[in-house]
Specification:
This protein is α+β, with helices and mostly antiparallel strands. It has 3 helices and 12 strands.
Length: 184
């Protein structure tokens, strides 16, 4: 049986604005040996699947520095301390990145993005009755183009690799589960 590893000590090593690096020393319950692990501490993240009254999904094209590629994604971002609640962050990010506002925001799932070295969660929200209300308000490090797609196109966009962001794919899995359970 797998057991939790006792934490012997923890030390913060660096702060990089969107995450901090922490070194933990833990002891294996199986061997009794001590090991060091590095953890990226980050605020929780949100993803938003905005659906218009016409059944379109509002998506964004954005350059991502990690892969040096322009990706096709849904709006998302960090839950700021001022947000207090991931649902507040979902509404804020939707408006900032797309200019759309939602009639209703529904939490449809949460994942641990990479529990091997990240300590946060990513919460997915469905934004119902999403309507364009203003120009997007990008921060200085964003360059985003907004495009509406038929929701029925999403599975093919995932299959053909146009959508390849793992958290976006997980968000659409949560949407599928939400949709299927609402039809019961």
């Amino acid at each position: 049986m797998v057991r939790k590893w006792e934490k012997l000590n923890s030390q913060h090593l660096a702060d990089y604005r969107i995450f901090t690096v922490r070194q933990d020393k833990r002891v294996s319950p199986r061997t009794g040996r001590e090991h060091q692990f590095y953890v990226l501490e980050s605020q929780d993240w949100i993803n938003v699947i905005p659906l218009t009254p016409e059944g379109k999904v509002v998506m964004i094209h954005q350059f991502r520095h990690g892969t040096a590629e322009i990706t096709l994604e849904i709006p998302g971002g960090i839950v700021d301390n001022e947000d207090g609640d991931p649902a507040v962050a979902a509404r804020r990010e939707l408006l900032e990145e797309t200019g759309y506002a939602a009639g209703d925001i529904v939490h449809i799932g949460t994942v641990a993005p990479n529990p091997a070295f990240l300590d946060n969660r990513c919460h997915t929200y469905l934004a119902l009755d999403a309507r364009w209300v203003q120009q997007p308000q990008f921060d200085g490090a964003e360059d985003i183009a907004v495009e509406e797609f038929d929701l029925a196109e999403v599975p093919e966009l995932i299959r053909n690799g146009r959508i390849n962001h793992a958290l976006v794919i997980a968000a659409f899995y949560h949407y599928e589960h939400y949709r299927d359970n609402r039809q019961d």
